[in-house]
Amino acid sequence: MEFIDENIQRYAEEHTTPESALLKRINRETHAQVLRPRMLSGHMQGRFLSLVSHMIQPKRILEIGTYTGYSALCMAEGLHADGKIITIDINEELETRVRAYFSESGMNAKIDYRVGDARAIIPTLNETFDLVFIDADKENYARYFDLVFDKVRIGGFLLADNVLWSGKVLQGNVDKDTKAIIDFNAKIQNDPRVENALLPLRDGILTIRKVSL
Ligand SMILES: C[S@@+](CC[C@H](N)C(=O)[O-])C[C@H]1O[C@@H](n2cnc3c(N)ncnc32)[C@H](O)[C@@H]1O
User: Fold this and answer.
1) Is 20 contained in some domain?
2) Tens digits of per-residue pLDDT, 132-158?
3) Euclidean distance between CA atoms 73 and 25, whole angstroms
4) pTM for the complete prediction?
5) Is residue 72 one of the residues assigned to a domain?
6) What is the ipTM of this complex?
7) Residue 1 in domain
8) Which domain of life is it from (predicted)?
9) Whose CA, among 34, 57, 75, 163, lies 20 to 30 Å from 42?
């Protein structure tokens, strides 16, 4: 489902800073060579993630769901000088490609890429995060939020992608992933420890700020 008029979308993209040459290539190669390329954040969302990261200047970012590395590179652009992003993905088939992209980016030293199940890796992380991007399997969004919440500083931010799930959150008869997203959105809306705004950017980004323990 497209949420906004095609012409408005084009106009918005024309007034968004272009992708770097590397990001453009990752975007193109992902579409040509990798399964499910729609999972990639893309031009506009990527620039949004970069801007958010620049606003926060995080020392620690956690990304759950690296895929081909596009969004990790966008967020890494805004890291504090001593900053680091930990990005996790379970798909080992993408590892060689992703490591090559990270090496080319010139930001490799700031990227800690872990291949494995985020449900097992997050509890082992001894870090305090300023920014978390939840973008892995929809079924586990609530679990990722619960696993990471105590590791986010008060005043820190979490972003959750695909929370409109192509508009399926409005439908009555829902599948497992849609139900998980609906439940996640309701859980965040009812959590007194956070403030949140659901932005209808691309497939929906739930923007969350931790306000108390
Ligand atoms: C939507 S894609 C991520 C897109 C990427 N953040 C971007 O914007 O370009 C979701 C990724 O989550 C990964 N994933 C799914 N289940 C996972 C799990 N349990 N632990 C870690 N990664 C997982 C998938 O392998 C897939 O690459």
Assistant:
1) yes
2) 999 999 999 999 999 999 999 999 999
3) 13
4) 0.98
5) yes
6) 0.99
7) no
8) Bacteria
9) 57
